[in-house]
Design brief:
By secondary structure, the chain is an all-beta fold. Helices cover 0% and strands 55% of the residues. The protein has strands at 2-6, 11-18, 25-33, 49-57, 64-74, 79-86, 92-94, 102-105, 109-112, 114-117, 124-130, 133-136. A six-stranded antiparallel beta sheet has the order 4-3-6-1-9-8, with no helix packed on it. Strand 8 and strand 9 (109-112) form a beta hairpin.
Length: 137
């Protein structure tokens, strides 16, 4: 799970580009919440809104785009949390930065260091940076 903070304008995320740990078909879910996951019980599945649920052919050598069932809209200056869950593993980069430190700034939003979980909605395991792509309008 990680956070995205918009800057001066509203941003709507329409797709995520996912990199798998292995080349396998996997059940994949994407959840979001309209604030930082530090502000609510992030391990409570009921606290999140599901915006994608489907089977995806993951690839460790290529980004696989998934179109979200519902856009994630981030008003100007606000933060959302995103949690990508895959039975077969989504690639994250290990981070040496602090949790919530910005690591991927753009003109329109900042992406911050988050955490990984070994199993869905279980205790956070390590700090990580989302290793995929964010497609937005």
């Amino acid at each position: 799970m990680f956070t995205i903070t918009s800057k001066l304008k509203e941003v709507s995320i329409t797709q995520l580009g996912i990199v798998g740990k292995d080349a396998k078909e996997s059940d994949l879910w994407v959840y979001y919440q309209k604030e930082s996951y530090a502000a609510f019980d992030a391990l409570n599945k009921d606290a999140w809104d599901e915006v994608f649920n489907g089977k995806v052919m993951l690839d460790p050598d290529e980004i696989v785009n998934i179109k979200l069932d519902e856009d994630i809209t981030i008003p100007a200056g606000e933060t959302v949390s995103v949690y990508v869950v895959s039975k077969k593993g989504v690639l994250y980069k290990k981070s040496s930065k602090d949790e919530f430190a910005k690591y991927a700034p753009s003109d329109d939003f900042d992406v911050s260091v988050g955490t990984t979980t070994k199993k869905e909605f279980q205790q956070p395991e390590k700090l990580a940076e989302f290793a995929g792509r964010i497609v937005y309008v």
